[in-house]
Every structure is written in C-alpha cells, then in structure tokens.
Amino acid sequence: MRRLEVDVAVIGGGPAGLAAALAAHKEGAARVLIIERNHELGGILQQCIHHGFGLHRFKAELTGPEYAQRFINQVRETDIQVLLETMVLEVTEDRTIYAVNSSEGMLEISAKAVVLAMGCRERTRGALRIPGKRPAGIFSAGTAQRYINIDGYIPGRKAVVLGSGDIGLIMARRLTLEGAQVEAVVEIMPYAAGLARNVVQCLEDFDIPLILQSTVVDIHGEDRLEGVTIARVDEDWKPIPGSERKIECDTLLLSVGLIPENELSGGAGVELDPITNGPKVDDTLMTSIPGIFACGNVLHVHDLVDNVSKEAERAGAFAAQYARQQLSAANRRIKVEAGENIRYVVPHEISLDKPVEFFMRVQRPEDDVFLDLGGLRTVKKPFVRPSEMLNITLTPEVLGKLQGDALTVRIVSQKEVDVDA
Questions:
Q1: Which of 153, 205, 215, 334 has its CA 20 to 30 Å from the CA of residue 140?
Q2: pLDDT tens for residues 230-249?
C-alpha cells in the first residue's frame, strides 16, 4: 500500500475542491492534494454547457466548462498534486484517507487537514415511490444532461419533466433546442423550485407549460415509456381524486432535488444537519471533527457556482491555517438558530472575532419582508423565495453587540420591525 503525507487533502475536484485547494496553497500549505474519482477535474460543470456562470466572480457570462477551466488552469500553474480516477473509500476521525485507483491500488493518505468537497447527487425515482411499470425512458435530469451534452445522445422525442429545479428547467430548454417536444414541467409545490431567471429563460421564452401543485401518479408502458398520469395535489401533497389526466410521452425527466454526498462524512463521525443533509460547521467551515472542513454542495445545496467558489476558498484557507497550527480556538461560541420562515442557516455556530457570511433559505415565499439577524441587522427584502438562497455578511464589530449565547435568524414583517424599533 502506497502511503502519502500531505498538509491539506481535498476530496473532490469540482468547483468547490478546485477553489479550496487553490486557497489552501495560497495560504501557505506546502503539500496540497486533490483526490477526484472522475477522469478529469471540473466536476458537474463539465456537462453544464449553458451560460450563466461567473457573473459575480469574473463579471463575465461563462459556460460551465469555461468557468471550471479557469480554476483548472490556476491549479496547473502550482505544485498542487492531483489524483484522478481515484475513489476515496474511507475518511477516519484522525484524518487518514483510504483510497483506491487502477494504477496504484490502495492508498493511505495522512493529512493534517481535510476538506470535504464531494458535491451532491440527484434524488431518484425510488425515493419518490411513483407507482407504475419500470420502462426505459425515465432519467434523472442530470443523467439526461450528460447523455446530450457529453455523449451526444438524445434521450427521447416527447418529454415530461417532473420537478422544476434548475437542472430540470435547463433540460426542458435543452431538449427543445435539440428538436424534442417538452409537453410540460410538473411541480408539486405552488411555486417553481428553480431560479426565477431560469423559469423565464427556459420555460416562458420557449412556451413550455409549467403545471403547479401537481405530480406524476402513474407511469405507463412496458419496454418503453408511453405516457404518464398527473394529478393535482392538496395541501398535504396527496393526489386529488378525479383530477388525473394522462400525458403521452416517451421520456420522463426527474428534477426532484439534490442530496449532499455525505457517506464519507458520516463514516468519519461528522455530525450532520438533518435539514441540509450536510455537515454542521462553525464559522471557519470546520465540522464537528477537528481538522475536517466542508464546503460547496456537500455542505448545503447552492444556487450559484460563484458562491460555491467563495465558500470553498474560505474552507481551504482555514484548512491551511489548521494544518500550520495557526487556527486558534475561539473563547466564546454562539449557536446560530433558524427562526420564523427560515429553513436553515449555515454556519451553525460562530465566534465573534472574524467576519461571518451567513447562507440561508426560507421555508415559503413572502413579499415585502425583512431579514433579521438576531437584532444586530435588519435588511429589507422585496421578496424571499425558497429557490433563491439569501446570504449576508456580519463584521466582528456588529457581532460583538450580540447579547446571549444564540443568534436567531428570522423573516419579519414591517409591523414587527416597527415594534422592535
């Protein structure tokens, strides 16, 4: 078994892993290693050939591969070591990584700090428990995206998309551009799950129907999908009898949520948040296991890759500081709690000695409200949507005014702001 010793090991070579490795190297980590199970760096961005990446970071509208290539080029200009086609099997509490590849067999990697950047995976049909047969023609939206953009195959000619997540919206447009007919995008919630700009650019601009408060209740076909039955749902998401209608199609794409890839995290003993399905972290993005950090979609699912890169750079820099024993423990720890109409907040715990960027999602849409951070700062929001992440940074000067041992983030109305004032 080959044995390696590194300062910072980054698991995952997607946008989060690339940014974390570069930041760790810049922060002074002498030996930085990226471990990637694919045959190339870039992660999911390599199949995202649509534009819209890099608007915040590079002030340019890039495709996914273009965005990834900018980071790959930077990595190549350094002495950061990269292991491709290498599968990590286990991460231990003492930051030992066991991995395997076809050229070297088993690897044992001892790291002073580990950055988890494994990304996320798609929820499958099995998780939805849709009744019906198991014909060909049912794909997750990401799988269909790879077939079209990487392999050059079109999955079908007449499609229905279940779920209005961003990948589903983008694939509805992609299929249309390739000559397929998208019959409808069906969403169980009363609002779209993807970004507003994608609803406009991918559905409205192409006259693709968006059917809300509905879901697929049956699948038809033996060898090949022949159609699906959809029905409206009530407030408890249960199908309403008598509202069923059949849509003929040969392809069903599922865009029903992303799940952070945290099997390795759980195996290492990292404490996970049941809401985000990602690790619980502090303001340095360190998990409950000292020296193990997390960033990107393995931590919580992001809307924009620009935010993934920014978050990963913080994780990589703090990991390098930990490896060099320069990351001091805070004297006072503050719990961060989700209040009214907030589904989750990251980080879960903070100190008061450094700027903290908070990421959060709301539970339901609201208009003309205020984002309140423990009374320290109140920001007016013309609207909030579960599909669009909120983020705000507080400085140590502002955080120092906090009273008590918890900071509660909540959505409040104008009336509540006036009362507090």
A1: 205
A2: 999 999 999 999 999 999 99
